[in-house]
Amino acid sequence: MASARGGEVTIRDLSKSFSLGGRQLAVLRSLNLDIRSGECLVIVGASGSGKTTLLRILAGLERADGGAVAIDGREIEGVGEERAVIFQEPRLLPWLTVLGNVAFGLEVRGVPKADAEKRARFYIALVGLAEFGDAYPRQLSGGMAQRVGIARALTVQPEILLLDEPLGALDAMTKISMQEELARIWNEENVTMVVVTHDLEEAIYLADRVLILPKEKGGAARLIEIDLPRPRDRSESRFVRYREELLREFGLH
């Protein structure tokens, strides 16, 4: 079901502050960024650097103090159907089956039930859960539940997929498996993907480019192009060099 899409994002002079203890705390300062249609951009940074804030602004869940964000040349105003968000917790509706959860977003948009379920089954199969359409969330593992969340987001066929620490709650082996699944799905669906993560290896595995947000006041954001073939080999020497470069950025190497 993949098709040519838009999903180009333009960010200009973006700033955002929060009030903390009677003073203003700036988390984003005059950020300028172009996200290419169909690319996977991964955002990393220390706690408090504004990663999730930036993602929420892109999703339309948070308003910036200044600057502008546009998708395909149109400035965003709140949430929109061209964007779908996947959080760390899948937030499935416990009274609905896997099929019901994945079809839900289409049904509330007025898509006839039979058509919604047909499309939902396609995406349930895409994430490897074809045999679990009749299962309920309580019967799923954490990794399976997150797959359902991904299928639900993809079913509405967004131009942009926004993921906030989507694999952060999973064990190490499941996380690696899900990273491979995300890379495969991104490739098959031709969707612009923006991922927030604390996992530097995950960033290198998924990203076309990594955006490093500074925590220091007055620091500048930095973009690193990840020039590696796909699928990626975590033990390959260039992969290891990218990991060392990111570790140095955070003073960990």
Automatic annotation (TrEMBL):
Keyword Nucleotidyltransferase: no
The keyword Nucleotide-binding belongs to this UniProt entry's keyword annotation: yes
Species name: Mesorhizobium tamadayense
Residue span(s) of domain ABC transporter: 9-240
Pfam family, any one: ABC_tran
Protein family according to the UniProt entry: Belongs to the ABC transporter superfamily.
Gene Ontology molecular function: ATP binding; ATP hydrolysis activity
UniProt name for this protein: ABC transporter ATP-binding protein
InterPro entries assigned: AAA+_ATPase, ABC_transporter-like_ATP-bd, ABC_transporter-like_CS, ABC_transporter_ATP-bind, P-loop_NTPase
Keywords, ordered alphabetically: ATP-binding, Nucleotide-binding, Transport
